[in-house]
Amino acid sequence: MRLRLLPPTLVNRIAAGEVIERPAAAVKELVENALDAGATRIDVQTQDGGKALIAVSDNGCGMDREELRLAVERHATSKLPTDDLLNIHTLGFRGEALPSIGAVARLRLTSRPQGAAEAWSLAVEGGAIADPAPAAAGAGTRVEVRDLFYATPARLKFLKSTRSETDAIKDVLTRLALARPEIGFFLTEGERALLKLPAEPLGDAGRLNRLAAVLGRDFAPNALPILAEREGITLTGHIGLPTYHRGTAAAQFLFVNGRPVKDKLLVGAVRGAYQDVLAHDRHAVVALYLDLPPTEVDVNVHPAKTEVRFRESGLVRGMIVGTIRHALAGAGHRASTAMTGAALGSFQAQPVQTHFTQWRPIESRPAPALAEAAYRFQAPPAGFAPLPGMAQPSDFAPAARAEAPLPAPGEEAFPLGAARAQLHETYILAETRDGVILVDQHAAHERLVYEKLKAALADQGIARQALLIPEVVEMEESAAEALLARTADWQQLGLMVEPFGPGAVLVREVPALLGKLDLPEMVRELAEQARDLGDGFALTDKLHHVAATMACHGSVRAGRRLSVPEMNALLRQMEVTPNSGQCNHGRPTYVQLSRSDLERLFGRK
Ligand SMILES: Nc1ncnc2c1ncn2[C@@H]1O[C@H](COP(=O)(O)OP(=O)(O)OP(=O)(O)O)[C@@H](O)[C@H]1O
Ligand SMILES: [Mg+2]
């Protein structure tokens, strides 16, 4: 075997394999160059998903003849003036992107420095660099990449359809555009304009505008601003309310020092932050901007520069989780108001006219007060366990009464108002000073129980209540084994289980908080979870998950009648409970219609 140094064109092609794996990667490199050059407007044109053509034009600083020549040389960069890889302020720093593209495509740079009289153009084809030639062009730079991978047919075969390459390009550009709202970004594929993002003002409002342009108009009313600062690290951005979730994580945007990154640590932190308020298969919508001294983060981890490594990763993670949770807890009562718009929309979509014609004449008397109906069913629901601090069953008014009750004075003054009726044995209708509120009783109660369980866990532990008659629950043998393997954990959660022969367990005590519950169902589900989790699960994280399951089974179900005092007690509890705007699955616990919404609905305004 003879050792030999590889010729530079081959070296570049090998490097290109890492840096430029598809058209979107080339777009990313070229747009980053434009950003580093101080451009305020960047235009990207592609043809055939970037496979035939990628052209990126900017109005940045431009390059003169000599700079053009150097720009396509390997390891030539203007961005590392001090040789310090730990102190990087630009998006580029390796001097690899242009030579890599030049090695696998037909590359042409045309550039004119700001204030210079002439433009120059330089072509690279399959690694061969031609001499710069005079050209006609405005100030700034235009880079054209034609026939990507024509020089590496193997790579060409791996390219996907025009459609999916175009999607990838759009995604890359969108992320860069979110990082820099003060810069205009435009993308056309063939004749079609795919992104039109004019420059926004610097600052928070501009950022939110850009986010809205990307995510849709409904993002802003469903988002919370965040801001945290710790040990030189700043975290800003906007996070979606838990009720505003998506089926994929594609709308999670993370930026570190202005660089879009897809980092596992950050993604995990977002998941952790929302874990309590979002179902497992749903994904939050967030745009997080992390700014920290360049020396605290290593961006030279991945050839595409999309991953970073933090010096203090624990601190960063903790900061993200803490900041998001804090913001969400503070917004508990905003969550579902944001849903109102959609609800209102569906109200208005009714063909009102036809409905009216079908109605029989209305009695002149106002419809019987809804609360009256509610009061007829005042018997406390069997087994509804009032939460500590809630009205006790003995406080309840007599069970049967026909006349509408006078609301307890001042109830309307509470944020969630005075309960007026229970509808379909599922929803609580409450009147507030400024409108009406419709509460999903199960969702709301589930959240309350869950928060109580969590608080008790963190505090002196969950109180247990012995069952008068211990209950035998049957299940699959393997599930029973998994459940019994963790007896101590269940005990901590207030559940006492014992073996009871193959495929069965005996339950002696349950968490006192839960009240009446579907015990066999709950224990079976917990056993399933224990089996799925296997042996090595982190106790605290999963305990919360388990507590959520318990809360679900131990909560007032839909279809159970509630008395007015019970309903009011529930409302009062919601007001003081963190995250009570949504249930543990990220569904809203209540929606709200303001008076002006009502007036709009009825055309009074
Ligand atoms: N659009 C542009 N406007 C002005 N100068 C540019 C432009 N694109 C590239 N350059 C110059 O060409 C040099 C080489 O660009 P290239 O992308 O190959 O490397 P880099 O940006 O320095 O590092 P990286 O490989 O990490 O991207 C840059 O350092 C810059 O000086
Ligand atoms: Mg670059």
Can you tell me about this structure?
- Residues 211-329 form the DNA mismatch repair protein S5 domain.
- It comes from Elstera cyanobacteriorum.
- Belongs to the DNA mismatch repair MutL/HexB family.
- InterPro entries: DNA_mismatch_repair_CS, DNA_mismatch_repair_MutL, DNA_mismatch_S5_2-like, HATPase_C_sf, MutL/Mlh/PMS, MutL/Mlh/Pms-like, MutL_C, MutL_C_dimsub.
- The chain has 605 residues and is of the alpha+beta class.
- Helix 2 packs parallel to helix 6 (162-179) and helix 16 packs antiparallel against helix 17 (539-553).
- It folds into three domains: 8-197, Histidine kinase-like ATPase, C-terminal domain (Heat Shock Protein 90); 204-331, Ribosomal Protein S5, domain 2, CATH 3.30.230; 368-392 and 403-605, MutL, C-terminal domain, dimerisation subdomain (formyl-coa transferase, domain 3, 2-Layer Sandwich).
- It is built from 19 helices and 23 strands.
- A hairpin with a 5-residue loop joins strand 1 and strand 2 (53-58).
- The strands form five sheets. Strands 1, 2, 3, 4, 5, 6, 7, 8 and 9 form a nine-stranded mixed β-sheet that branches.
- Residues 29, 33-34, 37, 58, 60-63, 71, 76-79, 92-98, 141 line the site of adenosine-5'-triphosphate.
